[in-house]
Design a protein that fits this description.
137 residues, alpha+beta, 25% strand, globular
Length: 137
Amino acid sequence: MMQKRADLDWILKDLADGVPQTRHVVVLSADGLCIAQHGCDVDTADRIAAACAGLQSLSAAIALELPNGDGQMRLVVIEMDGGFFYLMAAGTGAYLAVLADEGVDAGLMGQRMRDLVARIGEHLSSPPRATAAGRGT
């Protein structure tokens, strides 16, 4: 069962405070809905979540091209001018996204994200949304 947004605030703050240069932390569902955020306003978090849905879908399609690929995206890291972007699977149907400045310790960020997912991953699972007929999508 997915925790409420407020229940995740302290967890996301802990990640951001534990890794210097962290800018935004967002938890999103596989269909791109923001579940919780830290370090950004709701509009920014919603844009990040929507973009992440496309990115995780793209990376899953690419993963199928590997000989032993199962189509499951685990981690995407993008280095760009000004910083880094991380997207990690964080439970069934849920993802953890982080934007960080270029001075971030990339190894520390990856480790802290993995630790957070391992510690609370089952609480970050996002069940399929129900349709008007009451069936999952």
